[in-house]
From TrEMBL:
Enzyme Commission number: 3.2.1.52
Name this polypeptide is given: beta-N-acetylhexosaminidase
Glycoside hydrolase family 20 catalytic domain segment(s): 173-249
Organism: Hibiscus sabdariffa (roselle)
Name of a matching Pfam family: Glyco_hydro_20
Keyword NAD: no
Domain Beta-hexosaminidase eukaryotic type N-terminal: from-to ranges: 32-148
InterPro entries: Beta_hexosaminidase_sua/sub, GH, Glyco_hydro_20_cat, Hex-like_dom2, HEX_eukaryotic_N
Secretion signal, residue range per the UniProt entry: 1-23
Length: 262
């Protein structure tokens, strides 16, 4: 009796360990960051057609610009010159259909950022389907879609492996931020923009720009023109136009918090 109980517990432990190992193995195949709330996938392979495009009833310029940025990210400046006539037509994705429920593009704390992505669409297999309540949920869905795409250098084509995909996601936390401190460590404008772009890839939504402090004052204040004499050097400064450009770049994607000490 004791032996049978010991065997039972041993089998149970092995089953749990193997189950966890299999689950970890499956999760490791999903190359999406951050990991969505719900993911299911298959073992088929799809290809993006040469004229892969956006299909949507939305007139949102934010959405159109985000789609174009997403295409640039997945193409990585490669030339897509595959022989598409050799592909099975049922394996080609003609575009991404996006449905956004609300036309309100005001971005506030607590804005709904959820989305659902299906690749391919159950109704229209020639398209991927993305639906969201707001354009900001759609932006996250576009980032996720970009992570499903892979450029096959041998076939010169963009692939989506492990199809069909169904992904349902929303941020766990409404405030997901990153701080950059240019008062202590000056960063060129181009670097700041790259940081902002990388934040969008990871679905962060708040940039805290610690612009000035007692260490240095690199920001131009037109009403107080001598303040930025406190910069580290003449070349380590931000004009008012530079700051406005950063704000424009941020507003395309998420919030901006700035910090100016007294």
């Amino acid at each position: 009796m004791v032996a049978s109980k010991a065997l039972f517990y041993a089998v149970a432990v092995v089953a749990v360990v193997l189950g966890n190992a299999l689950a970890a193995s499956e999760i490791s195949q999903v190359k999406i960051w951050p990991m969505p709330a719900s993911v299911s996938y298959g073992d088929a392979r799809l290809y993006l057609s040469s004229d892969f495009g956006l299909s949507s009833d939305s007139e949102s310029q934010i959405l159109k610009d985000a789609f174009n940025r997403m295409l640039a990210v997945i193409k990585q400046d490669h030339v897509i010159d595959a022989n598409f006539s050799a592909f099975n037509r049922s394996s080609l994705l003609q575009g991404l259909h996006i449905v956004v429920s609300s036309p309100d593009e005001q971005l506030l704390y607590g804005t709904d950022e959820s989305y659902k992505l299906m690749v391919p669409s159950p109704e229209k297999p020639g398209y991927a389907h993305l639906e969201a309540k707001t354009v900001y949920g759609a932006l996250h869905g576009l980032q996720t879609f970009s992570q499903l795409c892979y450029f096959n250098i041998r076939r010169r084509v963009l692939e989506v492996n492990m199809s069909p995909w169904t992904i349902i996601d929303q941020p766990r936390f409404p405030f997901r931020g990153l701080l950059i401190d240019t008062s202590r460590h000056y960063l060129p404008l181009a670097v700041i923009k790259k940081v902002i772009d990388s934040m969008s890839y990871a679905k962060l939504n708040v940039l805290h720009w610690h612009i000035v402090d007692t260490q240095s004052f690199p920001l131009e204040i037109p009403s107080y023109p001598k303040l930025w004499d406190g910069a580290y050097s003449l070349s380590e400064r931000y004009s008012a136009a530079d700051a406005a450009e950063v704000v424009r770049h941020v507003v395309l994607l998420f919030f901006l918090l700035s910090h100016v000490s007294k």
